[in-house]
């Protein structure tokens, strides 16, 4: 079982002391927005897995070998905040991470987030996406991924955290109120 922290004040304290942080969770839950805010507050270099590792312009998927090489280079650094779940790369990331924030929102809120994102960014590239990857309407496969995330993918996340970093502290955020409370405890951006 991952090393969950249940107290928000304690989580904020550990987060402030951490130099290598992963923000994980289902698409649409707000992990990229939270990542940018925490990155600014803690003055940590921010890496979006979608932007930096997964995608090339025009929604072309980067090769797994290249993806893993790029991730390996970043996680070798002393200070970073990485946004993205991707349990297939936990073997590279989790042994180096000092703190994991799991944005674990209800699926209806993730679906709402995806719809809102498509509305506001449709036909343009989001800040956390690779250049040339224009936002489009979510397809059935993507919506199914979100709808079934807790049942199909959360167990993979838990197993990966347990296998590659059973002592790494993990803090779960399950509502927007909890997100805002954590950010309030971290204070204003530097």
Automatic annotation (TrEMBL):
Q: Does the keyword Nucleus apply?
A: no
This chain's protein is named DNA topology modulation kinase FlaR-like protein
Annotated TM spans = none
Q: Which UniProt keywords apply?
A: Kinase, Transferase
One molecular function GO term is: kinase activity
Write down the InterPro entries for this protein, in alphabetical order. Cytidylate_Kinase-2, P-loop_NTPase
Is Kinase one of the keywords UniProt gives this record? yes
As given in the record, the signal peptide range reads none
Please, which domain of life does this record's source organism belong to?
Answer: Bacteria
